[in-house]
Amino acid sequence: MSIKYGLYKTPVPGDREDKGEYHARFLASGRTTFDRLSELIAARTTLSDSEVKGMLKAFVYVFQLDMKVGMRIELEGIGTFYPVLASRMEENEKGEQKLKVEVKTVGFRCAKSLKNKLRDASVSKKKSLKIVRIPPEQRKSNILEYLQRNISITTKEAQDLNYCSKPLALADIHALMEEGKILSVGAKRNTLYIRPYGKSGE
After folding, report:
1. What mean pLDDT comes out for the span 59-63?
2. Measured distance CA(171)–CA(193) in Å, rounded
3. Under the phi-then-psi rule, with left for phi > 0, alpha for psi from -120 to 50, and beta for the rest, what region is 133?
């Protein structure tokens, strides 16, 4: 087994010469879920699949709890997780400018041992890349599901999530905004899309 990649043409601004350059992009061979983790860990321990799954759920609970109270989570062999903050000036009811600070996302710094492990992995080009055209409603559903697990999503993340072009990703995002299911924050290159308050569990 090896890490697969596909070659994609590198976009260039309109005022630059197109040199026909390509870049490699990681292509997932699948995804690891709680069920897969539970099965694999259970096979290497004396714990049952259900016991492992219970431990993993407890781990997630404690992880989120410590993150919420401002802890930096250091997992040996994986890396360090920490809150990333964003701030902006807002006007209150009295017309005063106040600085609002909130959690933007979660930062991650990869452990050196994990980097070294991945550098030793074999990498190969995927020979036959079958382009799967995901229906619009499924693409939008994927975006909403992503936002149940993450604070925000960018246009690029929506592209990668649904294996689609930037215009198509933007069309999905704008459709969800018109439906009132997501909101935009920031501007231009820093634009993020989030779930409206109170709808994170939909």
Report:
1. 96
2. 13
3. beta
β-bridge partners, 48: none
Residue carrying structure tokens 């596909």: 6
Give Cα 154 to chain centroid, integer Å: 9
Global pTM value = 0.58
3-state class (DSSP) for residue 56: helix
Q: Is residue 112 a contact partner of residue 145, using CB atoms and an 8 Å limit?
A: no
DSSP H/E element including 82: strand 79-91
Q: In the numeric block, which tokens belong to residue 63?
A: 């992880």
- Tokens read off for 23: 């870049």
How far is it, in rounded angstroms, from Cα 72 to Cα 82?
Answer: 5
Tally of CB atoms within 10 A around 176: 21
* Model confidence pLDDT, tens digit, residues 66-119: 999 999 999 999 999 999 999 989 888 888 899 999 999 999 999 999 999 999
Separation CA 38–CA 151 (nearest Å):
26
Q: 161 φ, ψ to 5°?
A: -65, -40
